[in-house]
Structures are given as structure tokens and as C-alpha cells.
Description:
Helix content: 25-40%
Mean pLDDT: 95
Order of helices and strands: EHHEHEHEHEE
Radius of gyration: 16 Å
Largest sheet: 6 strands, mixed
Number of helices: 5
CATH topology: Rossmann fold
Structural class: alpha/beta
CATH class: Alpha Beta
Oligomer: single chain
Amino acid sequence: MKKVYLVRHGETLFNYYKKMQGFSDSPLTKDGIQQAGLAKQYFEEQNILFDAVYASTSERTHQTLEIITDQPYTRLKGIKEWNFGSLEGESVLILPTPFEKDFFVQFGGEHREDFSKRVLDTIHDIVETSSASSILIVVHGGVIFEFYQEWLNHSEIRLKDNVKNCSIFDYTYSDNVYTLENIIEHDLD
Length: 189
């Protein structure tokens, strides 16, 4: 059995201003830095140590990870956020609700099925090829949501809202199945 911890990056300026971020990047806000500190505190209080650490190639994930741990880590393009094409930096309010899986393609972005395959394959490759028994992967809300949806039927735990900044999705991996054991969210209030 392996433990896999998926952590969303802390709040960024784009998150604060409700802008689509995707492949583009913006720095963590003061709250985002505090959220990452709370994630670090959680792992320390639970005596959780990591044998392997990964992040997407986006700076916001590196900033978050480097607050959580000072361990060396591997950066992977395969776990970057969904590419929204020319809509990156635009307000999330312009998105139709709901939108089709190929909505972003017309703007030079990724089809949802391509995005999903990319992130699911990359995370599974990390877990399968690593000899680590405890793995930290700092990624994005869309990445975590795709993974959550893929393995939804293997757990009783349910997401109540969107994937919050610096939330921790605690999975076990055994017999080719990922089981969500817990979702840890941090409140700054």
C-alpha cells in the first residue's frame, strides 16, 4: 500500500481576482502563503513524512511546495493545470454553465478528455514507478478534481464544494485502486 497526498497550491492573485489561470501563472497571495503554512503544520502534526515529492511546472505549485517541505522535488509538465488557451487571464464569469468538454479548444486550449488523460496517466506513472510509500504531489484544482472524479466510486468521502486552495486529498493506493481516505481543508478565520 502507498499513501498519495494531492495538495492544491495556495491562493494566487488570479484566484483572488477570479481569473482563469490554467497554463499561465501568478504568485501566491498573503493568504496563499498562510494556507501553505497550514498544510505544512497539518503534515507535521500528523507526523507525515514523504519519500518522494512532485509538483507541476507552474511556479505557484513550487511556491506552495517549498513552504510545505524543504525536500528536493521533481517538476512534471504532465500535471499542469488545464490549458484554457486565449481565455487565460479572463474572468471566470464569462464561462458558460455548464460548458462542453471541448469548450476551450476553440480558444486554443485543451479538450477536457486530453487534459484528463494527461493528468491521470502522469499521476499513475508517478505512483507506479516510484518505490516511495508516501508521495506528496502539489498540483492544481482541476488536476485534483479530475483525479477525484476518476476514483469517486472507490470511496465514501465526497467533495462538498470546489477544490479549495491548499486542500489535501489523502489517498491510499493498493491493488491498482486509489481510495480517498480524507479531504483536509484549511480555514484562515
